[in-house]
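stage 2 :: seqdesign
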């Protein structure tokens, strides 16, 4: 039978995405059988990500420093910015080893039905970068789903007056699919054959 402490742990695991009650019970009992050192390392790792990781002051991606590794890398092309929904998409683009520009993390996408309006996204800082930095191309690297398309259309309208080249990653990533789960070849192809909009 689960004791009170065990119930609390099961509830905490149950809050995690993709962890149903059955798996939460399994994980909680697994923790019970773990050596104390492993449990301490695990709790330390959880606390460290919250204590040490913040948002990069330029692109908005997660970083251990004020400015992330990509933004501070002088060898990367700072005239090209790929706009993505979140940091997980950057991991996917980086896996291709093909893209040498910089990124900008919107921190979501416009989703009127869930109350996600443009003012809640990291758009103002993107406009500031366009004004301050010498940007020649903005690549819209959003997921090819309904909300991703709304967001791309909104950004195109907003960015057009700046007179810079705006491109959109080509289809190849299936409609409704997710950049995060696309394979390296698909993402490379989508980047290579991006279209000017
Ligand atoms: Zn950055």
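stage 2 :: out
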């Amino acid at each position: 039978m689960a004791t009170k402490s065990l119930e609390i742990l099961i509830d905490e695991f149950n809050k995690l995405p993709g962890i149903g009650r059955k798996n939460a019970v399994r994980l909680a009992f697994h923790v019970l059988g773990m050596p104390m050192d492993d449990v301490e390392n695990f709790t330390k790792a959880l606390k460290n990500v919250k204590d040490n990781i913040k948002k990069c002051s330029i692109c908005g991606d997660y970083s251990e420093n004020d400015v992330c590794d990509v933004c501070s890398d002088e060898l990367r092309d700072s005239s090209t910015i790929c706009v993505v929904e979140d940091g997980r998409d950057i991991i996917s683009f980086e896996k291709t080893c093909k893209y040498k520009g910089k990124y900008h993390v919107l921190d979501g996408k416009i989703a009127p039905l869930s109350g996600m309006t443009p003012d809640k996204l990291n758009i103002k800082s993107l406009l500031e970068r366009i004004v301050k930095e010498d940007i020649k191309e903005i690549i819209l690297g959003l997921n090819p789903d309904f909300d991703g398309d709304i967001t791309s259309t909104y950004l195109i309208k907003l960015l057009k007056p700046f007179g810079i080249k705006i491109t959109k990653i080509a289809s190849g990533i299936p409609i409704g699919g997710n950049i995060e789960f696309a394979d390296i070849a698909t993402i490379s192809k989508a980047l290579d054959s991006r279209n000017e909009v």
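stage 3 :: structure notes
- The longest strand covers residues 77-84.
- The chain is about 40% helix and 15% strand.
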